[in-house]
Design goal:
The chain is an alpha/beta fold. The protein contains nine helices and ten strands. The longest helix has 16 residues, at about 130-145. The chain is globular. The structure holds zinc ion. Zinc ion (ZN) binds near residues 8, 12 and 128.
Length: about 260
């Protein structure tokens, strides 16, 4: 099975779906990573590990490291430039024509003959405009493809009762698959360790804890989830090539019994 993952910034793959992607690689899936930007506008680290001019190059290296840790098959950069975060922490999408962006995504899906595409959710997780732009780009790419060539489309951080970190949950995307990532905690931790420029940022969103345990606690966000966008889910449990791969695997819930929040 060939899975393509499209995301806005280095670290999204790890923080939003690292356990899931490591899990799928362990089951034998090829996982190919596509980052829209090099995170040029993001944190430099505390203390700074580089200059603003160098951060894209450094975050590229960090993502190479993380993809390796997650057992990924390849990594590609789409060469968009991530704008700097605003003075009041305003977040921006990268610039670039939406039609061209969707075409680029479609070309990659076709060239790789993807079985499954995984990307950001329809709320951009916590509303990040760049995450939303990638979500919409993937959606448009798939709408442009002939149905016979259309891979399954799943998104990160689907909503379910008991989600371990509601800040990053896409409230309008009900989860269809929930993964207990305990068996791949080491891989996810290794990937988090790679993203050194972002460690201070990650810790800003973690409850105060004993210093040494903070990163671990964050990583072990013990459950991750996926929402299926295409084809639209009509009944539970969901059945397709991806859920067939996951069926019967320890730690996987193919949603049937858990409550799903109402779609707004
Ligand atoms: Zn991001």
């Amino acid at each position: 099975m060939r899975i393509l993952v499209f995301f806005a910034h280095p670290d999204d793959e790890t923080m939003l779906a690292g356990g899931t992607l490591a899990f799928l690689a362990k089951l034998g899936a090829e996982v190919h990573y596509f980052s829209a930007t090099r995170g040029e506008g993001g944190d430099l680290g505390e203390p700074a590990l580089c200059t603003r001019a160098q951060v894209g190059e450094l975050r590229e290296e960090e993502l190479v490291c993380a993809v390796r840790a997650l057992g990924g098959s390849s990594l590609h950069f789409m060469d968009y430039i991530d704008p700097t975060v605003g003075a009041e922490n305003e977040l921006y999408a990268f610039e670039g024509d939406d039609v061209v962006f969707a075409e680029k995504i479609m070309d990659e899906i076709r060239a790789m003959q993807a079985d499954v595409v995984i990307s950001h959710g329809s709320d951009g997780e916590y509303g990040h405009p760049a995450h939303l732009k990638v979500h919409l780009g993937v959606k448009q790419a798939l709408l442009n493809l002939p149905e016979a060539e259309c891979p399954l489309f799943y998104t990160f951080q689907g909503a379910f009762s008991g989600h371990p970190k509601e800040r990053v949950m896409n409230v309008t995307d009900p989860a269809h698959v929930i993964l207990d990532i305990a068996s791949v905690t080491a891989e996810k931790l290794a990937a988090i360790a790679c993203h050194k420029t972002q460690h201070a940022l990650f810790l800003r969103h973690v409850e105060p804890d004993e210093q040494g345990q903070r990163l671990l606690k964050l990583a072990v966000m013990p459950l991750e989830s996926l929402h299926r966008v295409f084809p639209a889910v009509e009944s539970l449990p969901v059945q397709d090539a991806l859920t067939d791969l996951l069926a019967g695997v320890e730690g996987v819930t193919l949603l049937a019994e858990l409550s799903i929040p109402a779609k707004s």
